[in-house]
């Protein structure tokens, strides 16, 4: 979700995964030579494979350690990132619903005039609708 917001984090995870794949590939190569018969050429290839593996292993361990240290810090700091937006949303909702409550309260006070029966209200509404239909800007359907 946050890859577009925090691209450096996404890239660090991808680099770690690439290093892990390389490490696994070289580790399997070393294991393959260790399983073979111990002859001169095999021992030379085993030594060479171990030498290739060592820097890749160190690189992977460094990247892995860095991510293990920084990811918890990142996840704990995400609250600081979203908190202002969430607070603004809540404040906007409070203002909106407060205004809507006032408007509906005023409308209710206008509509609920005491002493009118349902028939009188219906006649009044029909009269207002007739006035609206009589306007030249209203098209007949």
TrEMBL record:
Keyword field contains Nucleotidyltransferase: no
Domain BAR: 1-120
Gene3D superfamilies in alphabetical order: Arfaptin homology (AH) domain/BAR domain
Main location: cytoplasm
GO CC aspect terms: actin cytoskeleton; cytoplasm
Subcellular location field: Cytoplasm, Cytoskeleton
Key words of the record: Coiled coil, Cytoplasm, Cytoskeleton
Gene Ontology molecular function: any one: lipid binding
GO biological process, one term: endocytosis
SUPFAM superfamilies in the cross-refs: BAR/IMD domain-like
InterPro entries: AH/BAR_dom_sf, BAR_dom, BIN3/RVS161-like
Pfam families in the record: BAR
Top-rank taxon: Eukaryota
Coiled-coil spans in chain: 9-36
The protein's name in its UniProt record: BIN3 protein
Organism of origin: Thryothorus ludovicianus (Carolina wren)
